[in-house]
Amino acid sequence: MSSRSYHHLFKILLVGDAGVGKCDLLAKFEEDKRQEEPFVSTIGIPFRVRDVRVGGKTVRLQLWNAVWDDLTTFTSSNTSSATTTDATRTAKGVLLVYDVTHETSFENTRRLRKVRDEGGLGEVVIMLLGTNAHYRGDDRQVTWQRGKELGDEAGVKFLEVSAVTGTNMEQALLTITKAILAKVGHINE
């Protein structure tokens, strides 16, 4: 390894409707990170940095909060289009986020699949995340089974997560990181 403290650097976009919990996820990823290492300031920049260990190697993740612009492009919150275009073009992964308590956000995740199927995302790794996994029963509009079925149908990994309880937060980062490493030929998934 060179003087940098990681072996690989991957940009990952958190994409989904406004209000599905992307900011909460970023805050939780950052909170978990602070317990392990010093905080890396990203003031004024719409992404957070998080290091994960996979196969004995450190992988640095840049986690970008993004929102839908239209069916073919994304725009990052509070950035210029030039920054957004670069972030989108160089992203290796997308965490496609919906809220289990809002059916519409779940249905809207199908837009990304359409973009991917039309070749608009290149070789990016996509993972489907249902937020607010701590809700049960009548509070839910989307069951775990429906999320799993959509993930299987789309050929992507699926997890439910909760920024409130921490459920599957670390697993989500490890899962997408392993899938990206497998895609670029650095590990067997």
Automatic annotation (TrEMBL):
Entry keyword Glycoprotein: no
SMART domains per record: RAB, RAS, RHO
InterPro entries linked to this entry: P-loop_NTPase (IPR027417), Small_GTPase (IPR001806), Small_GTPase_Rab (IPR050305)
A single MF term (Gene Ontology): GTPase activity
Coiled coil start-end: none
Family: Belongs to the small GTPase superfamily. Rab family.
Entry protein name: Ras-related protein Rab-8B-like
Lineage summary: Eukaryota, Metazoa, Ecdysozoa, Arthropoda, Crustacea
Gene: Rab8b-L
